Amino acid sequence: MDNIKKHLQITFFGGVGSVTGANFLLESLRTRLIVDCGLLQGTPEASTENHAVFPYDPKTIDFLFVTHAHMDHIGKIPKLVRDGFRGKIYSTPETKEIARLMLLDAIKVMQMNARDEQQDTHKALKKHDKPLYEMGDLDQAFFLWSTIPYHTETRIGEDFSVYLKDAGHILGSSMYEFSYEGKKITFTGDSGNSPTPLLKDTESIEGAHYLVIDSVYGDRNHESKTERDAQFERIIKETIAQGGALVIPAFSLERTQVILYELNNLVEEGRVPSVPVFLDSPLGAKVTSIYGRTSKDFNTGVQQEITEGDDIFNFPKLTVTHSGIESREIANTPNPKIIIAGSGMSSGGRIIHHEMMFLPDAKSTILLMGYQAVGTLGREIQDEPKELEIDGQKIIVNARIEMISGYSSHKDSDGLLEMVEGAKDTLKKVFVVMGEPKASTYLAQRIRDNVGVEAVFPERGKPYKLEV
Question: Could you give the residue ranges of the DSSP H alpha helices within 359-428?
Fold first, then answer.
């Protein structure tokens, strides 16, 4: 019996050497649980990887814990169910609600892509172009999905308990503290870039013996809040003064809401001229609606604004477009104007036709407001080429390219180090994941050098035994 109780190991099947594709297996001999089940995104091998057989048997997994509702953490959950998973899924209530929107949108996109391939006589429908899952798989996933609020201890299986803390990354994002035989294993998910414009700060890590930490910005720091806000205001004013369009690729979840909130403040305070602003993202609009009625997770300053009657996501001259026709008609509105559209890395969505229109315009600006993964169009634009190929068309780049990393919802290198520093008294080992290799290895070295705790950049698929 003692031998059974004292066997514990963790294996990293995704999110190693990549910012995306989170999928981590924690197991004793009695219980197998995974944390996150996300899509690999932005790499040439992503489609093949996402369609591949899971490296473990989904039927043998007892629990799935979802840290938050970004697709690189939830995008393969219906496939997990399709392939045999029948355990329990847990997250915060907010994550569950947003995840359903995100996954419904993903199914819609996959179905459209499959139809496009079938209609194109010059291409054969390949296995990797088929939808990963269908509505029945999604419905089954949500039948298995239960919720746990923050700061609640929950017994799971025969030998684990779990406690949720606010990660401060996006609405509903969680850090999971798993307790097993007196040892605590903490998964940060994606830790938030606190203080954020909207959300509460990332909570501290306490009593952890093993820590799995994200590292998107493990090797660099963001601008300060003051510098970040000043840059945003400057870019808006300069683009308007030039008579151009300010085009902002934005993730539907969190980034869109932050941009609307910041624009709301700038316009209402008269710090930037009031010009037409278009939110050209049906998914972004739906997520914003959820944010608008879930203010309990906002920081005290934002909660006070709402109490005083401010509609924080709405302001004069804001138009929300829904149909494709409305999206295309944005071009008929004279400049200057501001266009917010998905996706955040320009890897699809309505932002593409706006970029194709305004990249050649020297008066316009493309504003990147977060990490751009290698292999995405956003990363190509960030590198400021003289020309690009988009949808088979050669596009000359005359527009100004601007980058503000301070609005990222991820902690930077100093923030991550500070989080580990606060937990060093109990830590035995830190596993650094969810970053490009250079970011992860750099952060691991910083932790070893500055905190004095063993930190590793784990190998994919290698089991790591945890001492208990």
Answer: 377-382, 413-421
* Omega of the bond leading into 458 within 30 degrees of 0 (cis): no
Residue 178 CA to residue 35 CA, distance in Å, equals 11
The domains of the chain are located at 2-220+409-465, 225-403
Q: Other CB atoms closer than 10 Å to residue 406's CB: what's the count? A: 19
Quote the CA–CA distance of 174 and 176 in Å, as a whole number: 6
- Whether CATH 3.60.15.10 fits 2-220+409-465: yes
**Cβ contact 337:372 at 8 Å:** no
Nearest by Cα to 73 from 253, 295, 296: 253
Give the tokens for residue 409: 């919802």
CA 281, distance to chain mean position in Å, is 16
Burial of 449 (0-12, 13-18, 19+ CB in 10 A): exposed
Average pLDDT of the residues in 440-444? 98
CA geometry: angle at 52 spanning 48 and 54, to 5°?
145
Q: Give the phi and the psi of residue 92 in degrees, each rounded to 5.
A: -70, 160
CATH code at 225-403: 3.40.50.10890
Q: How far apart are CA 371 and CA 381, in angstroms?
A: 12
Task: Give the residue carrying structure tokens 């990963």.
Answer: 132
Chain mean pLDDT for the chain: 93
Cβ of 214: how many Cβ atoms within 10 Å? 27
Domains 2-220+409-465 and 225-403 share a fold: no
Which residue, among 313, 369, 361, has the nearest Cα to 336 in the 3D structure?
A: 361
Residue 328 corresponds to which amino acid? Answer: R
Tokens of residue 258, six digits:
């932050």
Per-residue model confidence as pLDDT tens digits over 95-110: 999 999 999 999 988 8
H runs (alpha helix) in 192-337 = 225-242, 255-268, 282-292, 300-307, 324-329
Over residues 50-62, the mean pLDDT reads 97
**Terminal alpha carbon distance of the chain:** 14
The number of residues in the chain equals 468
* CA–CA gap between residue 93 and residue 145 (Å, rounded): 10
Residues linked to residue 65 through DSSP beta bridges, in sequence order: 35, 90
Question: Amino acid letter at 281?
Answer: S
C-alpha span between 53 and 59 (Å, rounded): 13
**Residue 129: pLDDT over 70:** no
CA–CA gap between residue 439 and residue 214 (Å, rounded): 10
CA distance 247 to 362: 13
Between CA 168 and CA 191 the distance in angstroms is 6
- The closest alpha carbon to 435, from 421, 449, 446, belongs to 446
| Residue 130 DSSP code | S
